[in-house]
Structure formats: C-alpha cells, structure tokens
Specification:
The chain is an alpha/beta fold. The longest helix is centred in the N-terminal third of the chain and has 17 residues. The chain has 14 helices and 21 strands. The chain is globular, with a radius of gyration of 22 Å. Helix 4 runs antiparallel to helix 5 and helix 4 packs antiparallel against helix 8. It folds into two domains: 247 residues, 4-Layer Sandwich (Metallo-beta-lactamase, Chain A), CATH 3.60.15; 187 residues, Rossmann fold, CATH 3.40.50.10890. Helix content is 31%, strand content 20%. Strand 4 and strand 5 form a beta hairpin. The strands form four sheets. The chain has a seven-stranded mixed beta sheet. Strands 1-21-12-11-10-9 form a six-stranded mixed beta sheet, with no helix packed on it. A six-stranded parallel beta sheet has the order 15-14-16-13-17-20, with helices on both faces. The structure holds zinc ion. The site of zinc ion has 4 residues, from loops.
C-alpha cells in the first residue's frame, strides 16, 4: 500500500496554526537547546526549556517569551531540554512545570548538578529544588490532562523511548491538534519501551514537530549486535592486562552499558571482570531508573519478575568517593571502569585517562558520539594515527598526555532514532497535515526532507 507522506518543512522558526502558532525559541537549525513556544487561543505553553550545555558560569538568559508562559511541558530530563528551568525560576516564574515522574526526577538531578557546576553551593541547590518541587506536576503516560484549569486544552504524554520518562507531547485544543516528538529513541533499545505507535485518528494533526538529530543517517547495528560487539571488544581488551576505561554519559548510556554487561555476566559469558560505576551522577540516575522500573520494557520487566535486577550483577561496584576512584587505578586485576563525562570534557574519566592513556595495556572504549573539539574526539584521532606512526599526545586536565592505549569505538548505542526509525514513527501517525523538523543540524534536516517523500 502506498500512502502519501505529509510535507516536511525544515529550518523554519514559526508555524501558523488555525488558532495560534508554534515558534522555536531554540533548536530550529541545531541540535540544542530545545525550547518551543505554543500559542493557542491566547494561552502560551513552553515545550521544553533547554540551555546550552556546559556553557559558562553565568545563568542562561532565556528568550523573553519564555518567562511569560502559562505552563511548561518537559519532554525529558536531558540538560538541553531542561537546563533553562533554573533561569526561569530565578526570575520568579510562577506557573506549573509538567513532566512524567521519571522526567521530573532526572531533571532534579541534572539541574542540581548544573547549579553546582556553575559554582552554586549546597544551599543554592536546595533552595532551587524546593522551588522546582513546588512547581513540578507529575503526569502519567497516555492520560490526558488540562495544563491550565478552566481552559479547553488537553495535553497527553506519549512514550518516546529515548531515556527513562521521555515523552512526546500531544496538545489538543478546540481549533487544532499538534504533536511534539521530543527526542525519539531507537526501537528495541535496552531497558526502554519503544516509542508510541498507536494514535487515535479522530482528528487530524495540524502540525507534527519532529527531532532530526540523525535525519541523515542509518545506524548499522541493532541492540543484539551491539551486545556481541561489546563482548568481543572486552574479551580482546582484557587480554592486554590493563584496565578498560569506558567514558559514558550519566543518563541513559551508563544504564544501557550496565544492562548489556548484566546480560553478558548472567548468561555466563563474561566472567571475573569487576565493573566499577565511577560516576556519582550516573549512580544517582541508575537509582532513579530502579525507582521507576515500572516503565521498563518487557525484557527488563521479565527479569524483575524473576527477582533479577537488570541493572545489578555480581562484580558490579558503585564508586562514590573520589579517593575510592583513585584507588581503582592501583588494582592489579583488570577492571572495566565506567566514568563520566561521556566526551572526556570533565569528571573522573579525565584523571583515569591522564594516568592510564600512556600505557599500551590500557584500553579505552568509547560508547557514544564524540563532538569535534572534545578530548574524546582527540583521543580517537590520536589512536587512529598512531597505528601507522609514532604516538601522539592529547591535552587533558591541563597536561599533554601520550596516547599509547588501545582505543575502540562501539557504535549503535545511540539514544536517537535514525532516519528510518524517525520515518517509521512519523508514518504511524494518522492525518498529519504538516511536519516541521527541529533539533537537528541543517544538513540532517535537509537530508531527511529530501529522502522522506
Ligand atoms: Zn535527549
């Protein structure tokens, strides 16, 4: 059966609706930060309130319109979707902030951490979180709610499969029906349920706003292949006798790696390899995943029903204190150390790399995207060139560190759907009149628009 696909609009900031409009206050032509304003019949809703991650020590300034919103709807807890909330609340913003319960819990961790990174003290974090909790409203998936009492407007969070709690946001008013994808995950990702594909067709969608991070590519490996590749890399690496360092993002990636390792250990394939989760934020997020384990996918729920925690296994250690982190490097036995940050721009992984990159028995395993200009990207480049030449140094923690360690990259663990997976999400939605792409680079948006016809 052939169906006519809806028109796609790219790199456009404003989209008119029968009774209002949608404006992108961020991420119109880039991946971050995500923030959109929905104006409907005189009401304004802010969908996400992102801030540029890792900027400087000053609080983010938000576009003026953001401060006037009647309510905020959060798609998920990543910093580029919630980071502006601290600036919003600092201005005296006094309107409800809606999210799923897991999203609000992850947002608390992320925002508290970002205040600390900007030099905030414990009491600043506590004061902020008090204000946040006062405004936060936890909502369930698939249960419509009215974000503004007495107004004829309904919002529903739908599963987006990106990180725990992530949601697409459906907004229905008497004059229009719109949908924000939020960040969409890959179907069959570990732990997470797949993005929603069942929609009621009682009313057409006037506008679907879809992310387009990977609108220009197809991920090669599915989750089963990723696990096999992970196993092979670890077995090869441990033969070298040194530690295996895994730089990982605290939210989503750390839990996905733990889940794959849990499978490998409990199936008896991976033996006698201690695994250290050496990231305080990653540990807190992992605990949050466990608190909201009702949201896990079937495979993970099945493990839970057999009293097998899918995020814990024999040989997994939580490293909370800095001094215990330093001690890991003195361990004689080969260990796998998961530490942040994911691109080696800060966090405990930097100290491990400074100490261990100069040794050929060390292995570094990258499990996520490394942006241009980051130490992670520099390490991969240096290791690649060292195959045919002398070893190079990279700048890390203020030092020039020789890269003699072996470096591997594990592909396929992306938290973002590729173009085929984006298209499958879109094709499942009935009666779409128009699709606006955002949250993607210009090339990715153009490429998807051309390809999706
Ligand atoms: Zn995200």
């Amino acid at each position: 059966m052939t169906q006519t696909r809806p028109p796609i609009v790219v790199c456009t900031k404003t989209h008119d609706l029968p009774n209002g409009r949608v404006s992108f206050l961020g991420a119109a032509q880039t991946v971050t930060p995500a923030m959109s304003l929905v104006e409907l019949d005189g009401i304004t809703l802010l969908v996400d309130c992102g801030a540029e991650p890792g900027r400087d020590n000053t609080p983010t300034e938000l576009p003026d319109d953001a401060y006037e919103a009647d309510a905020v709807l959060l798609t998920h807890g990543h910093l580029d979707h919630v980071g502006g909330i601290s600036a919003l609340l600092a201005s005296g913003f006094n309107a409800p902030i809606y999210g799923t319960s897991a999203t609000l819990a992850i947002a608390r961790i992320v925002l508290g951490d970002s205040i600390r990174l900007r030099g905030g003290r414990h009491r600043d974090v506590r004061a902020f979180l008090g204000g946040f909790d006062h405004m936060a409203r936890a909502m369930k998936y698939d249960e419509p709610f009215s974000p503004i009492a007495s107004r004829d407007l309904q919002v529903t969070f739908r599963e987006a499969g990106h990180i725990l709690g992530s949601a697409s946001v459906e907004i229905v008013s008497p004059g229009s029906r719109i949908l924000f994808s939020g960040d969409l995950g890959r179907p069959k990702s570990p732990i997470l349920r797949d993005y929603n594909t069942t929609w009621d067709d009682s009313k057409p969608f006037d506008l679907v706003v879809m992310e387009s991070t990977y609108g220009d590519r197809v991920h090669e490996d599915g989750p089963d292949q990723v696990r096999e590749n992970l196993f092979e890399i670890i077995e090869r690496a441990r033969a070298d006798g040194g530690h295996i360092l895994v730089p990982a993002f605290a939210i989503g990636r750390t839990q996905a790696i733990i889940y794959h390792l849990d499978n490998l250990v409990e199936s008896g394939r991976l033996e006698n390899l201690p695994v250290a989760v050496d990231t305080p934020m990653g540990l807190r997020v992992t605990e949050t995943y466990s608190v909201f384990n009702k949201l896990f996918d079937e495979e993970a729920l099945d493990k839970l029903s057999r009293e097998d925690d899918p995020l814990d296994f024999k040989g997994l250690y939580a490293v909370r204190k800095g001094r215990d982190s330093r001690r890991l490097r003195d361990m004689k036995q080969t260990m796998l150390i998961i530490a942040g940050s994911g691109m080696c721009t800060g966090g405990r992984i930097v100290e491990h790399l400074v100490e261990l990159l100069p040794y050929s028995e060390t292995n570094v395993l990258f499990v996520g995207y490394q942006a241009h200009g980051t130490p992670g990207r520099a390490i991969i480049g240096a290791a690649e060139r060292a195959k045919d030449g002398p070893s190079e140094t990279v700048k890390l923690g203020g030092a020039n560190v020789p890269v003699r360690a072996k470096v591997d990259v594990l592909h396929g663990l992306s938290a973002h759907a590729d173009r085929k997976e984006l298209a499958a999400w879109l094709d499942a939605i009935p009666g779409v009149q128009k699709v606006a792409l955002h949250h993607g680079d210009v090339d990715a948006q153009n490429s998807f628009q051309k390809w999706y016809k």
